[in-house]
Design a protein that fits this description.
Layout lengths: L4 H16 L11 H52 L9 E3 L14 E4 L2 E4 L2 H7 L14 E2 L6 E3 L1 E5 L4 E2 L2 E2 L2 E8 L11 E6 L4 E9 L7 E2 L3 E7 L4
Parallel strand pairs: 7-11
Antiparallel strand pairs: 1-6, 2-3, 2-5, 4-5, 6-9, 7-8, 9-13, 10-11, 12-13
Amino acid sequence: MRLDTSYWARVNNSRRHLYHSPHRHTGEGFTIVELLIVIVVIGILAAITTIAFNGVTAKARNVRTISVVQSYNKALTSYRAVNSSYPPVNAGRACLGTGYADVNSDGTGDCGETANIASEDVTFFNSLKSIIATQPVVNSARVNMPYQTSTFVGAVLYNWSGFKVNNVSNPYYIMYMLEGDKADCQNANVVMPWEDAALGKYGWPEMKTTSTQKYSWTDNKTTACVVPLENI
């Protein structure tokens, strides 16, 4: 039987093409193209995992912040009921909790806004100790304040006569920050800036109560929470 040499020539050419093909799988491993694809996929998965993890940890920090602030809020309310006043706030502002980092190197822990820093007040701490013995820091993660370059950590109790709610002076109030846009402050007494040019209201420190908004103000990264305490 006569063999068709042209047929076998085509077969051999095909074999040689397959052997030298960059996409050919051999026992020697993956091709460069396949390795690049794997690396890209792993990078994408790692980025997704990091974003998801950061979101979970931010929510966890918010939950802790809200819980600790609520504890201090109740303690301050109880102190007022017993003493007919709030603990002394000597510098007009005091950290809620002890154990904050000493930002300005004066030997005392600091909290609140970097541009208007508050410190741990020993007198305040000792007074409130009659109601709540353990006073932990609210949080230790410093975050940017909405629409500002300043950062904020923990929670601060302020005593300022210029602060008003619904046109009434309300000197005592708590301020803290939550991570994320439009985060729920989890406090029914949260107030928002009163902005109404017709009434001569241009926002802070003129505040008003709200039945719908669950935060004071926010940008796309951080939420500010301002909670007034009951007047004495």
